[in-house]
Amino acid sequence: MTDEDGDSDDFETRAIHAGWEPDPQTGAIMPPIYATSTFAQDAPGEDRGYEYSRTGNPTRMALEENLASLEGGEHGRAFASGMAAINTVLNLLSAGDHVVVGRDVYGGTHRLFTDVYEDYDLEFSFVDATDPDAVAAAITEETELVWAETPTNPLLEIVDIERVAVVAHDGDALLAVDNTFATPYLQQPLEFGADIVAHSLTKYLGGHSDIVGGALITDDAELDERLGFYQNSVGATPDPFACFLVLRGTKTLPVRMDRHSENARELAEWLDEHSAVETVHYPGLESHPGHEVAAAQMDDFGGMLSVEFDAPLEAVRRFVSETDIFTLAESLGGVESLIEHPATMTHGAVPAEERRKTGITDGLVRLSVGLEAVGDLRTDLADTLEKTIEI
Ligand code: PLP
Q1: Is 222 exposed, middle or buried (0-12, 13-18, 19+ CB in 10 A)?
Q2: What per-residue confidence (pLDDT) applies to 1?
């Protein structure tokens, strides 16, 4: 159903249409890439909605509206990377403030918090956010923010957004959820009480491994204004070409996520039965400790999974290096399948002792399951396991 503004209740329609109407002047179906740094003014201070591209750009605006609509939020802000988006949330804080962080987060997020912001006198407590009581216990008078990913990177743990939102709000703190792994097609954290949703657009939203970008979405106009102030003042904004590519990506997000989820589920079930595999972390498996919460807050379980092998580090390194279709690379969420070794790649920045406490072992391998024929993906993993880990 669409209303008079052309907005639809249906995600698939909004993915394609939200944020852009065919150009009234030319009829262009896709938003032009407004490659301009500045905009003519009719009189000093009288612009036509745009003054300077760091502050605002029509291609970026189309993307920001599209992303806000997909997350079911009122306001969207796009950034030059996921890290720039996350950094902007921390800009809301002041020296002396305290943040409670889910302990399993992207290694770069961990690095930003501890190696950058601890020097600015922010304090971070890393806790098991799958346990809302552990989050509650860590909240102090100084806590201004709770930061969580769900599913988490790389262990695919599930945080109960609704319960953690209650705990954060009871402590007068904001809840920010990094929704990169799930995407708004599968999970909309604002609906469960989150105040800010963060994304690395580099992943599923872009979807084709050809841009780096980030976004923040909120329903709160005042919060959005503050985020906009830092977006413009710090200046880590995306160029219009990157915005155009993400807009192209979001149009096919629903069909891609359906196939990512289908392929990942099939591989997770197969790996779960494989003799060389110790544990499969995939929230779609009924044996996953977060399965019920995931089933309640997600529409499907996504394309990411991780697998633990009880094998020497050298064998695991050979396994991830020798797959044929799965490419050894950091990042995730593109159409192609990727494989990586978190302990030495994406989470190498997390100190070894903390990795151990979190459960990021040397035997852990992360898969970003792409859209290739799932039979080919299974054969690739089976053949490589036989050559490297099963011997
Ligand atoms: N959040 C998650 C869950 C990620 O996996 C990543 C990157 O891998 C980021 C944020 C950072 O995004 P970017 O690489 O676009 O800066």
Answers
A1: exposed
A2: 47
Q: Residue 324 to residues 179, 339, 364, 385, 390: CA-CA distances in angstroms? A: 29, 10, 19, 12, 17
Give the atom of ligand 1 at the shortest distance from the alpha carbon of 346: 8
For residue 32, is the peptide bond before it cis, meaning its omega torsion is within 30 degrees of 0?
no
Q: Which domains does the chain have, with CATH numbers?
A: 11-251 (3.40.640.10), 253-388 (3.90.1150.10)
Q: Calculate how far, in angstroms, residue 111's C-alpha sits from the geometric centre of ligand 1.
A: 12
Residue 308 near residue 363 (C-beta atoms within 8 A): yes
Chain CA centroid to CA 132, Å: 21
pLDDT in tens, 40-51: 999 999 999 999
Catalytic residue among 103, 203, 265, 317: 203
Q: What tens digit of pLDDT does each residue of 21-34 get?
A: 999 999 999 999 99
Residue nearest to atom 14 of ligand 1 (CA): 82
Structure pTM? Answer: 0.97
For CA atoms 175, 80, 349, 334, the dihedral sign is: positive
pLDDT given for residue 373 in this prediction: 98
